Amino acid sequence: MQEKDARQKRFEELKAQAEADDEERKSAAPGGTVAVTMEDFEADWNASQFWYDEETSRALAEELVEGVEEDDHVALVSAPSVFVKLKNLMKDGLVPKCNIHLFEYDNRFTLFGPEFTFYDFNEPLKLPLKFKGFFDRVLVDPPFLSEECQTKAAITVRWLAKSWTGIVGGNTGRPDGVGSRQEHRIIVCTGERMKDVVTKMYGKAGVRCTGFEVRHAQGLSNEFRCYANFESGRLKWEN
């Protein structure tokens, strides 16, 4: 109980700080004052919330924004741990700056203000019209391993994405594993057993299963994979 109260107090402090310092936070300038981590958000397993571990969050964040331009727009759909990691990496000047936006059911993330939009996969197109075909890159992690959830999430991604044409990515051979420049990237993180559904829904966008294993901080029995429409040093398509 004491831990829960402390977490709630910390969350309220972060929310107040974010509201008071919105411009600095939004610019993600190095040395900014807001430092939110996923430890500030207790995962609700009943709501199918499972945060990525540190290594996975960082890898996905780096792959998603590698080579972006500052005016590019990047969407995170039901993937708050990657969103938060990106905020901190940009704040510290460790990845290129761009415009990122979180679409998420959990209203605790409203503390990110204009970078947050409430999203329920049951209503895949109930989103502000301004976001239709708006995003250069999209990462999605559907909350449930069901065909219905995966299909509806894919409808959302298709609606948000600027492009739905598969583009063959290249491997730069860089030792850090960061990929090559590709304007339109789509990353899907979900269970390995959803491979057929993902291939069906994202096939025209060039999304294929990679060998990159998605790991969660809480540990899950289901094997999770990363599907992408590009390859890099870290993300290699399976044969």
Automatic annotation (TrEMBL):
Give the signal peptide range.
Answer: none
Q: Name one GO biological process term.
A: methylation
Stretches of Basic and acidic residues bias are at: 1-27
Name listed for the protein in its UniProt record: Protein-lysine N-methyltransferase EFM5
What are the UniProt keywords, alphabetically?
Cytoplasm, Methyltransferase, Transferase
Q: What is its main location?
A: cytoplasm
Region entry Disordered, spans? 1-33
Gene Ontology, cellular component aspect:
cytoplasm
Q: Where in the cell is it found?
A: Cytoplasm
Q: Say what the protein does.
A: S-adenosyl-L-methionine-dependent protein-lysine N-methyltransferase that trimethylates elongation factor 1-alpha at 'Lys-79'.
Which GO terms of the molecular function aspect are on file?
protein-lysine N-methyltransferase activity
Record EC number: 2.1.1.-
Source organism per entry reads Orbilia blumenaviensis
Protein family (similarity comment): Belongs to the class I-like SAM-binding methyltransferase superfamily. EFM5 family.
